[in-house]
Write a structure and sequence with these properties.
mainly alpha; flat
Length: 133
């Protein structure tokens, strides 16, 4: 009888990677569907909310996945579960920055000062998260 030793950490990381990849694909497909089916000149608040939510989830999952893969390559000796947490947090913050700036642009309120303030707040949240640990 042949026994296979499966490391539970590796399986969990693999599950995370597959899940985030699938989430990225599904959320991107949902966003593309919204782009094709929602007329911005003839929609209400719900249409815009669905647009911003789908792009947020697509970007958050994509940035989290790419962030983890980059961190895994750079910090090979670090604990992967910790890298997943950091990559997810930073992916969500990056998605918030992009969607927030896109929202400000859509409202006609985006300028250099508002963009700088928005990014500065996100960086402050990240530094707080890093120091808190």
């Amino acid at each position: 009888m042949v026994s296979v030793n499966i490391n539970s950490k590796d399986m969990t990381i693999k599950t995370y990677l597959w899940g985030m990849g699938l989430c990225t694909l599904l959320c991107s497909a949902a966003w593309i569907s919204v782009l094709g089916n929602v007329d911005p000149t003839d929609t209400d608040t719900v249409g815009f909310a669905v647009f911003y939510l789908t792009i947020f989830f697509a970007l958050a999952s994509f940035f989290s996945l790419m962030g983890f893969l980059l961190r895994r390559r750079i910090f090979e000796d670090k604990i992967e579960f910790r890298q997943v947490e950091i990559a997810f947090r930073q992916g969500v913050l990056l998605a918030l920055i992009f969607v927030g700036l896109l929202f400000l642009q859509g409202q006609g309120m985006l300028n250099l000062y508002s963009a700088f303030t928005f990014v500065l707040v996100a960086v402050a949240v990240e530094f707080y998260s890093m120091v808190k640990r």
